[in-house]
Amino acid sequence: MKIETKKRVALYGFYALFVIMLLMGTRCESRVHLTTPEKDAKHIAELAETVHTEAELRAVEKIASEYEIAYRKSYGGAKALYFKSLYEPIMDEAGERRAAYRAEEEYVASLEAALAAHLNDLQRAWQMPLGDEAEELAKLQANIAEVARLEGEMEVLVAQKEQLAMDIIEAGYPQDMLDQIGHVEADIATVAAAIREVEHTNAIILLANRLQLGREITIATEEAETVEEAETVEEAEGI
Amino acid sequence: MKRFIVALAAMAVLTACCNNGNGGVAIDEQNHENEAYNLSYDLAMKVCEAQSLEEFSAARAELEAYSEAFRTQIGGESYTIFLKECGAILGEI
Question: Is A115 in CB contact (< 8 Å) with chain B?
């Protein structure tokens, strides 16, 4: 009998402890201890002033939202709305500050990328195996021919896009035609990227020749020849 | 006891090495803006004036070490100046 009583007491004790822990758990879960809307909004403002990263902004927003929910649960909607009206401008300011930081971060990232690209170009130029001048010139001219071919391809695609744009207006913007123009625009972007890549390769070849051998290679392009011819004609005619 | 002291000394050496992880590069914190202008010019010119791949690689490594030092030790405007000036000089080549 005595043992039975002891067991029962222990069981009740265990249940009581469990209930207490459960209650404490729910209390611990809520990090929010309400004072007055003004004081709590001031606390949020203090936290918001330290916001620098996206994660910090989200964390402060979460805390503000927890306060708002706590106000709603404890005092009803009116006080929660009043609290919201106090903290919302603070969060807007923090958001603007974060946006400014983001712009700055993006600017720094673009500078870092540009510096890395310059250094990589130089590295590529220093490591590029070079042949004699005729070979280098042939490489450059082959690339120029490739650019001319790609530019031709580009012209066709641009004309196709313009035609499609007119057809789309006439047909009343059907989805299949809009998809088609999307594909053409993607092709144009691909060709443009290919042109930039080949032109960049040529720039690296010229740089490699200059850095490694101090050799300046002049490419006689059709345009340069045309200009030279025009100048010769002008001189001959005494213009 | 002896082993403990040896282990402690090894840890101290290791910590010192880790703290000096920027290859011994230190920026003058009182004068960092001028340092950003002067160092960016010197280091970028060293990269431009390299006469061989080895010289270029050494100059690049030095520039990158200083860039990292500016980023971690100073940051802000001076780091931006350093990046911008280096980029402008190297872009001229």
Answer: yes
- The verdict on a CB contact (< 8 Å) between A122 and B53 is no
- Which of A48, A187, A111, A181 lies closest to B87 in space, CA to CA? A111
DSSP-derived letter for residue A238 is T
Min Cα–Cα distance to chain B from A163, Å: 40
Full-model pTM? 0.67
Tokens 């401008």 label which residue? Answer: A89
The three-state (H, E, C) secondary structure of A136-189, written as one string: HHHHHHHHHHHHHHHHHHHHHHHHHHHHHHHHHHHHCCCHHHHHHHHHHHHHHH
Q: Vertex A59, ends A56 and A65: CA angle to 5°?
A: 145
Distance from the Cα of residue A90 to its chain's centroid: 27
Tokens of B17: 């090495």
Q: How many angstroms separate the CA atoms of A67 and A73, rounded?
A: 10
Contact state of B87 with A114 under an 8 Å Cβ cutoff: yes
Tokens representing A226 are 């045309």
CB-based contact A115 B47, cutoff 8 Å: no
Q: Is the pLDDT of residue A195 over 50?
A: yes
Alpha carbons A201 and A193: distance in angstroms, whole number: 12
The burial class, CB within 10 Å (0-12 / 13-18 / 19+), for A36 is exposed
ipTM, two decimals, is 0.78
Does B55 have pLDDT greater than 80?
A: yes
Measured distance CA(A184)–CA(A164) in Å, rounded = 9
